[in-house]
Amino acid sequence: MAAHYLDFERPIADLEGKIEELSKLSETAGPGAFELEIQALRDRAQALRVEAYANLDAWQKTMVARHPQRPHLRDYVAGLIDEFVELRGDRKFADDQAIVGGLGRFRGQPVVVMGHEKGHDTTTRLKHNFGMARPEGYRKAVRLMDMAERFNLPVITFVDTAGAYPGLGAEERGQAEAIARSTERCLTLNTPMIATIVGEGGSGGAIALAGANKVLILEHSIYSVISPEGAASILWRDGARAKDAATQMRITAQDLIKLGIVDRIIDEPAGGAHSDHPAALKAVGDAIEDELKGLLALDVAALRKQRSDRFYAIGRVGLQ
Questions:
Q1: Of the candidates 88, 81, 126, which has an alpha carbon nearest to the alpha carbon of residue 105?
Q2: C-alpha dihedral over 59, 60, 65, 69, to 10 degrees?
Q3: Number of domains in the chain
Q4: Are residues 11 and 86 in the same domain?
Q5: Selection from 258, 235, 244, 228 nearest residue 62 by Cα
Q6: With the CA atoms of 71, 73, 79 and 85 taken in that order, what torsion angle do they form, in degrees rounded to the nearest 10?
Q7: If we measure between CA atoms, which residue out of 102, 107, 108 comes closest to residue 157?
Q8: Is the model more confident about 20 or about 93?
Q9: In the predicted model, is pLDDT for residue 320 greater than 50?
Q10: Mind listing the pLDDT tens digit for each residue in 225-236?
């Protein structure tokens, strides 16, 4: 897949274009002909990448969180979950592929795993509805959480959605009620639950899978009650002011941890998670494993109390 560069990455793109040109020339001129020049350009590109990603504003982080080559649920399942068996359907209406879930083993521990899947090309994006779930997706999530509790399995979720699907059919089939039931089931679960915001966590469509004991977030992910574009349209009747909205809404991982909305920031590789999938997957897996160890030691009463205390505390933490 060809690299996709964001606007602020243009200097990096130019350097990597020069590296590609020199590499092609090196093939005709002989091995090592431009080795020093190529390495110097690679070092410069890496330095620019580190510098750029160390100073991202809220809108730039929004663009990174939405990057089409960022790891999605299927990547996390393939990299972190062994013996994965997908379970489909809500036993009421249909199977919604915007939310994918099932059973598997996370580093030897049997778990229920699920999350939003956006897809990686036109065909899969349409299949998964760009990660925007309908009511049956959230009802499937409730079914899987019921199963997790029945068999005493921890629940691991990966959140990456612009929001729940706002279509007429979804509303007719009870979208709001389905989201509320899924959120309620997260909060009443008698087994450990860890949610990780791996891209964008938008509105109720995100919280329906994120009412967890521990909410983790990747360094350049975002989590908000509405998209910056939506907020700008409501506040200023001007969607073009999305950048201003992103800044004011405090949607970045760094803002969210100060507010007590997330519990842990997971560092991304230089250049974002999309630049190095294996490193990103390992960092996420290590963080989940670390948090899960502590939760597995708690009994049911302690798990429920920890979860309720965590969410009751939101809003009581002042800006720092």
A1: 81
A2: 140
A3: 2
A4: no
A5: 228
A6: -160
A7: 102
A8: 93
A9: no
A10: 988 988 999 999
